[in-house]
Amino acid sequence: MTLDRQALGFGSGERARYGSDPWRTRGRLYPEAPSLTRSDFQRDRDRIVHTTAFRRLKHKTQVFIAADGDHYRTRLTHTIEVAQIARALARALRIDEDLAEGVALVHDFGHTPFGHTGEDALHEVLKPYGGFDHNAQSLRIVTKLERRYAEFDGLNLTWESLEGLVKHNGPLVGPDGEGLRGPVPQPILDYCAMHDLELGSYASLEAQVAAIADDIAYNTHDIDDGLRSGYLTFDMLEEIPFLAGLMGEVRARYPGLEPARFTHEIMRRQITAMVEDVITVAQTRLRDVRPETASDVRGADRVIATFSDSMAETDRQIKRLLMTRIYRHPEVMRVRAAAANIVTDLYHAFIADPGQMEKHYWADQIAGMEIPAKARHVGDYLAGMTDTYAIAVHRRLFDHTPDLR
Prior knowledge:
By secondary structure, this protein is mainly alpha-helical. It contains 18 helices and no strands. Helix 3 (75-93) crosses helix 9 (205-229) and helix 4 packs across helix 7. The protein is globular and about 65 Å long. The termini are far apart.
């Protein structure tokens, strides 16, 4: 497969037939008058950026907690990098950039404090009540928990933005209605009962590029942060042929380059290679599938925006490297265990006395609720916390707070 540069949409201003039409959206759960100056997808993107949930991402862990240093990625900077890559892919494929960017910006809204550690801890305590899933929590935030409008809860996003949020990683159910990756989280099923997001089909191509942009972004920036931390070394990167090739190219062109610049030269080449690989695959699959509309993309028998077989193998190799060298590093595991204790302690404290949930708008009503409903509200409150706020509340409620440094 080769990249078809003639087909790239840079500067063309013309949307491809298979792209989502920003002026013909499937609508919102609560009908609204159209804007005179913005498409519905632009409005969705803008609403997402102005949320409390978006601002909270700046103090939520990506891999390294804030105490480790100011230059490590947070969930917010990760999200911005994903959005930039998603927009570049959307422009190249001549699809709606605003929808792709909006899905990228909202995709991590449901993440807890302390990254996947917090999610695992919250899922464990909520298991008797349906567990916790960050993607389902993102949907709860934008359809229920954000309180910004007089006429409805949530953001009242378009069908396309919500579909992209829920299905950016592919269909959730098979032809028999069974979950393809385990049971479909109940919050998603509850919402689809009111506003069917068609869980058995692929999402739009805009959502697909947002999903693959997520992989490209964290594969790259987790290497960058790993090198900064010292958990990764250039010698370790040599174990992966793709990265070894990039390093050889940089060394040949810039002999004796200082480590910081060397790292950035590798990273930008990695992003470029992965982005161009996705575009090449997407162009080939679009020629095979020949979708005439965005609905044809949803009904296709395959994902359109994805890696080639060779880049998918590189992706797996990078993920294995990150898992063994960073995510399971003894020091990271120590911090993870301490962070999990904070989340677990707070959950039990709030269940015992909901009044401890300061500033929660339902705190005075939760005490009289049945346990399942009470647990879900406590989960909402905990999931919305930043790392810094969770630590501060734990220090207020407990005599000893684990050291996360």
